């Protein structure tokens, strides 16, 4: 059995080890060496090593496929209510019901959060105070009235 496949394997391993530790062009050279030497090492490897690699790949693929084929339990049926207005709403329709109730009361809903919007007719008699805010952007000061 020829051991010449160990030379490109060692070069590939060293370049893969050095790749994250170097910056700029040397890291690109190491990545290129690893990409070229890995297939060369696989071609030069004897059939015993190639069959062991193939067996390892098949075992890993089989275990991954088994992990993905986990049966999903069926959801339990929800009990039916005779009067839907008497019981509190649960599930995906509960948020829709609370959003419609909030809109009926004059509140607003944004991304599931409800906030109260003050009545505009109540604010007409009040004087609105304006506040001046100074904002700085890249060394320049801006004054803005809110």
Note the topology.
Elements: H1 6-18, H2 24-44, H3 47-68, H4 92-104, E1 107-110, E2 113-116, H5 120-123, E3 132-137, E4 140-145
Antiparallel strand pairs: 1-2, 3-4
Helix pairs in contact: 1-2
| Rg, Å, rounded | 34 Å
Q: Structural class of the helix and strand makeup?
A: alpha+beta
Helical percentage: 40-55%
Number of helices: 5
Instruction: Give the helices and strands as they follow along the chain.
Output: HHHHEEHEE
User: Stretches where pLDDT falls below 50 for ≥5 residues?
Assistant: none
Q: Can you tell me the overall shape?
A: elongated
Biggest β-sheet: count, sense, barrel?
2 strands, antiparallel
Distance between the termini: 82 Å
Look at the structure and give the mean pLDDT.
77
- The total count of strands amounts to 4
Question: How do you describe this structure in short?
Answer:
This protein is an alpha+beta fold and 146 residues long. It is 50% helix and 14% strand. The chain has five helices and four strands; from the N terminus they run ααααββαββ.
Explain the overall architecture.
The structure is a single chain. The protein has 146 residues and is an alpha+beta fold. The chain has a domain of 63 residues. The chain has five helices and four strands. A hairpin with a 2-residue loop joins strand 1 and strand 2. Helix 1 runs antiparallel to helix 2. It is elongated and about 95 Å long. The termini are far apart.
